[in-house]
Fold:
Amino acid sequence: MRRPILALMASLLAALAPQPAAAQPVLNVYNWTDYIDPHVVQRFQQETGIRIRYDVYDSLETLEGKLSAGRSGYDVIVPTSEPTFARLVRAGALRPLDRARIPNWRNLDPALLARVAAIDPGNAHGAIYLWGTVGLGLRLDRVRAIAPELDTGSLDLLLKPENAAKLAGCGLAVMDSATDVLPSVLRWLGRSPDSADAADLRAAEAALLAIRPHLRAIPGSGALLDMLATGEVCVALAYSGDVIQAAARAREAGRGWSSPMCRRGPGRTCSSTCWRSRPMRPTPRRRMPSSTSCCGPR
Structure:
C-alpha cells in the first residue's frame, strides 16, 4: 500500500549566534535531496537579500544523526512527520512558529494540518512543505517481460519471496530507510504500521530477510532514484517523488518508462519565518511540486 508521507518545515530551537548587524543575513537549511527547485532558492535570495546555505540528506537516519550530535548549525529543517518530526516535538527541540508572521499559512490544506496536529498539537512547530507516499516504483515493461502473470498492483510483487526470485534478474531494491520501510511491511502483513510490538517487528524482519537474497541493492533515496532512472532496477520500494523524478529523467534520456507507482496494497526568526512562508505562496508552490514530483501543501 502507498503510505502517506508528510514533509514539514521546522525551525531548530538552538540556532547559531546572531551575526553583526552589517553582515548579510544567512539562513541554514537542511532538506531532503531533490526536494526544491533551485530557481526557488535563487528567487528567495534575490527578493529578500538573505543568503541560503543549503545542505541535503537522503535518509531520516542521516538527519537524526546530524541533529543528535548537537549544535547542527541549521535554522530550518525538513523532517518527515513520522517519526522524526514527532520525536523533535516531544524533545522540545523546535522553536514554536509565530503564526502572525506567516500570512501564507492560510494556503495550507486543513485536512493535512489535522493529520500532523496529532503529533504537534495546534500545529505549533511545523508547516507542511510537501507530501507524498511510499510504494513500489516499477519499470512495468521489464516486469511484464519476465513475469506477465504477476499482479503489479500489490506489494506482493516484491515482498513475496517467490515473486522476488522471478524478478531478481531485472533488479530489485528497497530504500535504506527503516523508518519508512518497516511501516510499509507491517501494513502489508496486516499489522499496524505504527506497531512497536516485538512480535510484529520480528515478523517484518522475517519478511525482509526472506527477500534479501534477491535484492540488488539497499540504497539511499538519491542513489535509488538514479538506479530507477538508468534501469539498473525494475522494482523498488521507494518514495513516490523519487519514482516520478526517475521516470522524468529516464524519458529525458530516451530510455522510456511506464507505470511509475504501484496502485494498491494493504534561528534567525525573521529569515526562517520568511523562508517558511514563501513555499505557501501560490506561484512557488505550483513550481516546486513540478520540480520535486511531490504534492504541494494544498
Q: What stands out?
A: The beta strands are 3-11, 26-32, 51-57, 76-77, 126-138, 172-174, 235-239. Residues 262-272 have pLDDT under 50 and may be disordered. Residues 198-211 form the longest helix (14 residues).
